UniProtKB/TrEMBL annotation:
Family: Belongs to the UPF0065 (bug) family.
Lineage, top ranks: Bacteria, Pseudomonadati, Pseudomonadota, Betaproteobacteria, Burkholderiales
The protein's name: Tripartite tricarboxylate transporter family receptor
Transmembrane domains' residue ranges: none
Classification via InterPro entries: BUG, Bug_dom1
Keywords: Receptor
Natural source organism: Variovorax paradoxus
Amino acid sequence: MVFSMQRAHPVRRALGVGLFLAAMGLTCLAQAQGTPIRLLVGFPAGAGTDAIARTLGEKLKDVLGVPVVVENRAGAGGQIAAQALKAAPADGHTLFLSHDHSISILPQVVKNPGFNPATDFVPVAGFATFANVLAVSGGTPAKSIDEYVKWVRTQRGGKETIGIPAPASIPEFLVKMISEKYKIDVQPAPYRGSAPMTADMLGNQITAGIASVPDFIENHKAGKVRIVASIGAKRQAVLPNVPTFTELGFSNLEDLPYYGIFAPVGTPQPIIDKYGEALQKVLAMPDVKQKLTTMGLTVGYEPQGQFAGRVRSYTQTWERIIQSSGFKPL
């Protein structure tokens, strides 16, 4: 059917447009249901985000009835994966599983990131929050942040490096805050993701690192690293004995980072809705919730609108922190 938009009555014209767009969306949805879904991840295999993506991808495959292929586009703190999402067709075949760094932080700390989340992406749904934490390696006897600071002063002459998964990230700003609060000279050591950083911590090549709970939790439980502080307004359920930075006298570290799924802007709303519903079903599975919780996530489904609001609020919080720090975009 061909609609004549110029001659049609305004009401009929509006109705025709709506029906046409709905039909287009449903057609794309039907096509998407028979085509593998690429789930982009901005970090290497073995990292916490990768493990989360593979856990969800396996279950989404069952719910949606199509293969879900996790595609690692590691590098630049998720920037490469975000650029790949922007370049992907808005046909429902490509999604991006990301935490806050790629969406809320990168565009503020990189001059030309190659994407704009506000105009290039659309949130599908959120599924968890988590905490960035400071962990010390077996190369130091410290069991608290105060003991670590004392060790740096007495054994390192007040100077040390702390590993971070990516430059110009929240962990880098936390390193700066630690340095300023305790009057010690600690500098960030950027890595290409948390996996190589953790490997160096386990080998005692670096004595401390800052990353997410999922990146450290298993080694913390095994006693190979020791988490000594976390962000957030309250202690993490998986780390009841670890104080928050707020408890330790730091400010503006109450908002928790998020995890969510994004699609290219222009992806038909029926597809967005379908994927959101599928994610909600997956998160309701007891084994999935238990596994993600064990990884250090606070699991909770957030529909598109609610999740979009979280992203905006979190971005604004860190915009203020970054600007007040005097940081110059790279």
